[in-house]
Design goal:
By secondary structure, the chain is an alpha+beta fold. The protein has five helices and four strands, in the order ββαββαααα. The chain folds into two domains: 89 residues, 3-Layer(aba) Sandwich (Rossmann fold); 81 residues, no CATH class. A four-stranded antiparallel beta sheet has the order 2-1-3-4, covered by helices on one side.
C-alpha cells in the first residue's frame, strides 16, 4: 500500500448483518489519496453491501469508517454525498449526447459541498481521465504478464483496451 498520499478512506472492523447473516464481517482497509482500489469477489461476497455501507444507504453496521479523518457513523447518504462519496449503480447511464470528458465534468460540477467552476471541473475531469488511462496501461502490462495462463483474461484485457481507446477518442 502506498504511504505517499494522505489517508482518504479507512474502514476498521466493519460488520453488517441482515438478521443472522453477516454480509460483511470485520472488514478493514485504508485508501490513500492518489490510490485506485478495487473490490473483487464472487456473487454474494458483500461487495455491494460494502459500497452501500460506505455511502450511507445501508445503516445498522458496526465498526468505524472514516473519510478524511472524519467519521461517517451518523451521516445520512445525502451528507456523505456532499463530502465527496457517491454511490453509483452497475448500469451506467451516461448522458448520451455528451463526450466522456463532458460526462465526467458533470460529476465534478455536482456532488461536492463547494461548487466547482466549469474551468475547475474540466481540469478535474481531464485529470480523472488521465488516471483511467494509467489504469488501462497497467492492465496492458498485467495482460502481457499473464498472457497464456487463461484465454478469458486476454478477452477481458482486450475489452479494457477498447474502453480506454473509446474514452480517449470521445474526450478530445
Amino acid at each position: 500500500m502506498s504511504e505517499n498520499g494522505a489517508k482518504l478512506l479507512e474502514a476498521r472492523g466493519v460488520t453488517k448483518r441482515f438478521g443472522t447473516l453477516a454480509a460483511l464481517k470485520d472488514i478493514s482497509f485504508e485508501m490513500r489519496e492518489g490510490e485506485i482500489l478495487g473490490v473483487i469477489g464472487p456473487n454474494g461476497a458483500g461487495k455491494t453491501t460494502l459500497v452501500n455501507v460506505i455511502s450511507g444507504s445501508a445503516p445498522g453496521w458496526i465498526g468505524e469508517i472514516r473519510f478524511r479523518e472524519s467519521s461517517l457513523r451518523r451521516l445520512r447518504p445525502h451528507r456523505i454525498g456532499r463530502i465527496g462519496i457517491a454511490r453509483t449503480y452497475q448500469v451506467a447511464q451516461p448522458f448520451g449526447g455528451m463526450t466522456a470528458l463532458e460526462n465526467v465534468m458533470v460529476a465534478a460540477l455536482y456532488g461536492h459541498e463547494r461548487r466547482a467552476s466549469v474551468r475547475d471541473a474540466r481540469a478535474r475531469a481531464e485529470e480523472i481521465l488521465e488516471q483511467l488511462d494509467g489504469v488501462a496501461a497497467a492492465l496492458t502490462r498485467l495482460r502481457r504478464h499473464l498472457e497464456g495462463n487463461d484465454p478469458r483474461l486476454a478477452e477481458l484485457f482486450e475489452e479494457a483496451r477498447r474502453v480506454r481507446d473509446r474514452w480517449a477518442r470521445e474526450s478530445r
